[in-house]
Amino acid sequence: MTLPAHAPKYERWTKHELKQCITQRTRKDFTKDRSRKKDYYVRRLRKLDRKARFCFFNLAPELRNLIYQELLTIVKLIDTA
Known about the structure:
The protein has 81 residues and is mainly alpha-helical.
């Protein structure tokens, strides 16, 4: 889950940008929808964010190794404290 401080600031996006993002993530065309207000799209994206998941093992091995390296560095720092 993304920490609120690092989450996208959807309120700053234009209505068109919000609709494009939803279209990309749901594969349903929202770009032609004119009947809804901007806050609807913001709520929709936040809901999609909460449901978003990805499989760690689908990442390239090089990326996984970088993440492991970062995690092991954090563990070392905690153990030496």
